[in-house]
Amino acid sequence: MSVDTTAPVTGGQVTEDTVLAEISGMLRVLLDEYGLDDVEITMDTRFHEDLELESIDLVSLSADLKERYGDEVNFAEFIAGFELEEIIAMTVGQLVDHVVVSLREAARG
Amino acid sequence: MSRFLFVVPPLVGHVNPTIGVAAELVARGHAVAWAGHHDVVRKLVGDDAAVLDCASPELAARGSDLTGPAAFRFLWQDFLLPLARAMAPGVRAAVAEFAPDVVVADQQAVAGGLVAEELGLPWVTSATTSAELVDPLSGMPKVKTWLAERIDGLRGGSGGPDPRFSPHGVLAFTTRELLGPVELPHDDVWLVGPSVLPRPSTSDFPWEWIVEGTPTVLVTLGTANADAGHRFLAQAAQALSRLPVRAVLVDPDSSLSEVPDNVLVRRHVPQLDLLPRVDAVVCHAGHNTVCESLWHGVPLVVAPIRDDQPIVAGQVVAAGAGVRVRFSRATSAHLADAITTVLDDTTGHRRAAAVVGDSFRAAGGAARAADHLEKV
Questions:
Q1: Which residues belong to any copy of the Carrier domain (chain A) (predicted)?
Q2: Nearest-5° Cα angle at A16, A14 to A19
Q3: Under a CB-based contact definition with an 8 Å cutoff, are residues B250 and B269 in contact?
């Protein structure tokens, strides 16, 4: 893992590490049949260039995120905020940060 | 009698559907001409047709790693926008020479719609793939703006109708059975079905290869993806070597080093002549290959690479007419499973393919398209 910092915990559990582990799990399930064994998923892993995710994968991932985190995390809104160049370079870490921030904000009320 | 000018990009899949429509118009006493890359268009439309040359950069070779949003950026920034700038003077000259009553502008030959609008001519959009009809950028408003600004930049930022969607009408070579229940951009999107016409065969074929009683599988990655397909074709050949089939594999670059006994490798095939005798097609989900296969009721294994292909692949799967695999990661095992699945009649893929094929024939194709064009 390239992540060695533990983000401050809010609402009990939310850290960068746990969210990265959970999202990596979702991505591995998504690509399972195609063997992701050779790919390490880190904060710097790029959705397109490294994982070769397709648009249907993003739809599945969105559903997985909703199932795990509820309405606090809005993947569609996250994607909608990106310029073309940002979408091309989008990383797992950006999504992790988004989830962490969203959950902390929700916990603060 | 009216005069129709087809404005096309130098892409086979975008020219082919116009040929049937043009033939129908000519049969009804109208005059037709094409504006586009002279050599590319001439080869497809035949020696007798009127072709008015437009400077047109051809689509550069794209590696297999150019996919997703990076492929989208490349397609517009490095091909379609420069193409529009290069074609515009030729389209204006073609209009001056041919004096059309109606311009039929391909959705990717953006210069067609722009020039027609500039000159005040009625124009219709030819959508040879249905991917744009489903608003693929709806979830990415900033990307949508990026493109809209660049398209508007082609006309000096003056604003006006989207040159990809004529307000006079959009010919869409598909049907609801394949497109699915999506909302269309406006009421004058005419779902006329594919324009599949016997076309002059440009390649010979050893027909004795096809043997009655043994399933035949065609593997093709279309005309615009050869350079990206070497790994995939090698995996497909391996998959086929394990199956009780005979296969025809299109390998334009002769990239395969080892070829199993039950696989015939050709650089080109007469696809339309071959399809009635084929039991499954493995392809990149290009709209024309998909439609031609479904027209003949042939189920598909789709491995979309980029551009509109992921959307078309999604349509094939949703219609039940095929199985999707990942182009960049599929191994011979994945492909063997997928091919076996679509060849198995109990899975229903063949029946679903036939249902879409029936809808295509019922939609009227070129004749229906000509009906609409005559009313513009």
A1: 13-103
A2: 70
A3: yes
What local confidence, expressed as pLDDT, does residue A13 receive?
67
pTM listed for this prediction: 0.91
CB B191 within 8 A of CB B175: yes
Mark yes or no for CB contact B142/A81 under 8 Å. Answer: yes
* Domain co-membership, B150 together with B279: no
Q: Which tokens go with B311?
A: 């959307």
Do B213 and B88 sit in the same domain of this protein? no
Contacts of residue B70 in chain A, CB cutoff 8 Å? 48-49, 88
Q: Mind listing the domains of chain A with CATH numbers? A: 16-108 (1.10.1200.10)
Give me the interface pTM, i.e. the ipTM: 0.84
Q: Residue A8's pLDDT is what?
A: 41
Which of B69, B304, B326 is facing A84, going by the closest CB pair?
B69
Provide the chain B residues 118-147 that lie in CB contact (below 8 A) with chain A: 136, 139-143, 146
- The answer as to whether B17 is a domain residue is yes
- Within a domain: residue B366? no
pLDDT at A9: 42
- Which tens digit of pLDDT belongs to each residue from B160-205? 999 999 999 999 999 999 999 999 988 999 999 998 877 666 678 9
Over its length of 109 residues, how does chain A's per-residue pLDDT go in tens digits?
444 344 444 445 689 999 999 999 999 988 877 766 667 899 999 999 888 888 889 999 999 999 999 999 999 999 999 999 999 999 999 999 999 999 998 888 7
* B371 alpha carbon, distance to own chain's centre: 22
How many CB atoms are located within 10 Å of the residue B111 CB? 29
The enclosing domain of B230 has a CATH number of 3.40.50.2000
Q: Judge whether residue B34 has pLDDT over 50.
A: yes
> Which H or E element spans position B5?
strand B3-7
Domain count, chain B: 2
Kindly state whether residue B253 falls inside one of the protein's structural domains.
yes
User: How many of the other CB atoms lie within 10 Å of CB of B107?
Assistant: 26
pLDDT band at B291 (very low <50, low <70, confident <90, very high): very high
Host domain of residue B158? 3-172
Q: What are B169's two structure tokens?
A: 């009408």
Least confident of A32-46, B280-294, B351-365: A32-46
Given a contact cutoff of 8 angstroms between Cβ atoms, the answer to whether B197 and B44 are in contact is: no
B375 touches chain A (CB under 8 A): no
**Torsion sign (Cα): B110, B115, B120, B124:** negative
Same domain, B167 and B221: no
- CA distances to A22, A24, A65, B153 from A29, rounded to whole Å, are 11, 9, 13, 43
Nearest chain A Cα distance for residue B208, angstroms: 37
